[in-house]
Amino acid sequence: MTASRKRNANDTPLLRVSTSGIHGLGAFATRDLPAGVLLGLYEGRRYTADQVAARTWDNQLTYLFMLSNGETIDGGKGGNATRHLNHSCDPNCEAVEEYDDAGRLDLRFQTLVPVAAGEELFIDYGLTADDGSPASDYPCRCGAATCRGTMLDTEPREEAQPGLVAR
Predict the structure, then answer these.
(1) Which of 24, 101, 110, 143 has the fewest C-beta atoms under 10 angstroms from its C-beta?
(2) What SS3 class is residue 51?
(3) 3-166: CATH, from 2.170.270.10, 2.60.40.10, 3.90.1150.10, 3.20.20.70
(4) What integer is the mean pLDDT of 52-77?
């Protein structure tokens, strides 16, 4: 195995973590995947809105994903390979909220379109900046023809939706 193909402890049956041409590490399909395939749940330490507000966060690299119920999952604390899905303005995957049997809100990632083995998996972060930072503080490097130039969500939302949070 080459260094880039070496199995990572965060790998899952459908995801391999490796160096990304977009940013840092990325998640790559281990085999051909049809549209609608569950890639995995976003896992990590959960925080309430009050706990998030009370903490001081490292704003250099975060894996914070805010759910529509106000909870935030920190994929950097006990997370899995799904935290390495990078942003694209033309994603091949999406984040979907779903309640489990115990009534807990989970976040799952699934493919939007068929994905070839070895292809990098992307979501649109829908990033929100709590501090009102300008879009230029969060440049996008996805290279998509439809790139909006920022990872921030530029579309107004009428209701709470899941999304990554810059802290």
Answers:
(1) 101
(2) helix
(3) 2.170.270.10
(4) 84
